[in-house]
Amino acid sequence: MALVDQQGAASPKRRDNRGTKKPIDNDATDPLKIHVSGYPPYARIDDLKEAFSDYKVKHIKPMKNFAIITMADAKSSQDAIANSDKICVYGEFLTVRLFSEQDLLRNKRVFVKSKEKNVIIDPSKIELSGDFLQQLDQVLAAVRLTKEEVTKISKLYQDLQTVLSGIWPGCHAYPFGSITTGLGIKTSDADCFVELPAQFQHASMNHVNKAKRLLQQYPKIFTEIYSIPNAHTPIVKFFYTPTETNCDVSFKTLLGVRNSKLIAFLLHADPRLIPIAVLVKYWAKVHGFSGSGRLTNYALTMLLIFYLQQKQFGKFFVIMIKGWFFVLMRPFLKAKKGEAPAADPAPDASIEDPADLTNGLLEHGELNSSALDSASPAATAATAATAATAATAATAAP
Known about the structure:
The structure is a single chain. By secondary structure, the chain is an alpha+beta fold. It is about 40% helix and about 15% strand. The strands form four sheets. A five-stranded mixed sheet has the order 7-8-11-10-9, sandwiched between helices. Strands 2-3-1-6 form a four-stranded antiparallel sheet. The radius of gyration is 29 Å and the shape is elongated.
C-alpha cells in the first residue's frame, strides 16, 4: 500500500517534468559541430568531404550560405578550427569555427512587420448585433479597407515608380489585385506590375534582383525586402513603412492588371456584389482555404462570379454582363438534335427565395456567427457559394 501511495504521489511530478519545456539556448554550442563558410556556391558535399578528409567527419549538412559538419570527436573539431583559412575548396579558403544555434537564426529570414500585417482578425472578436444587414455592415467595417486607407496606399505606387525610374527611366507602376477591385481587407497585400520601356526589356535580365538592390537604398521607406527570381512569375517583396503595407512587384506580364479590371467591372455592376465577395474572402481566409499554396483570391472571386451567372438567378445576373453570360453559358444551352436552340434566360426572371439558399449562413433573419467562426471547414466548404448568393439577394431586401 505504501508503494502504491508513493507511486501515486510521484506520478504528478513526473507528468509536470514531461510537460515543462526547457528554454532554447541560442548561444549553445556543440563541441562536435563546426560552422564552415567561404566555399563557392557550386561546391558539392563530396568537395567538402575531400577538403576535410584528414579529420573524422561524421556528417555534413549544407545550409544556404554555410555548412554544418559534425565530427566524430571533439579533437577533430578543434583541429579543423585551428586550420581555419588554411583548408581550401576550388581555390577558396574556408572559415571554420565552432557552430552555435544562433547561426540557424541568422540564416533564417524573419520579417516581423510583414508577419504581423498578415494576422487576420478573429471572428469571435467582431461584435454582431441587429438584423442581417446590420451584422453584415459590422463584419465589413472590421475586416475591409476603408476608402481613406486605399487612398493612402496609392502613394506606395508613386514612390515605387519614382525610385525605379532611377535605373529604368520611363517605367510605369500599375496597381492590381484586391485593393484595386474593391475587395481589399486589412491583411491584403498591394500588387504592382512595373512596365519597363522597350530598351530595358531583356528576357535574360533579372529585374527583381536589380529592383531589390535599389529599394534597399531607401530603408526608411522600403523594408524587409527580398526577391524570388526563380518563380514562374519572378517578384520582389517588401514592406512599405508609410502605410504599413506588404507589396509584391512583378515585371513579367500585364495580365494581372487586366484580370483585375475584369473583376472590378463585374463586381461594380451592382452594389450588393462587393460586400458579399469580401465576406466570402474573409470566410475563406479564416478557415485556411485561401493563401499561399492554396486557392488564390482571384480564383475564389471568379468561382463566386461564375456561380452568380447561372441561369436560375434571372434578370439581375443576365443584365449584369449579358455578353459574358452568353459566352460562358451557351455551351450548356445547346439544343438536342432535332430541337430548337435553347433561348437565353428571360430578362424578367426572378431570383430564388434567399431563405432556400442560406444553408446556415443566414439563420432566423440574423447572421449566424458560427458560419464564420466555429463551423468546421469540412462542414461549410460545400455551402460557401450558396451562402454568398443568399447574402447578395438579402441585401436587396427593403
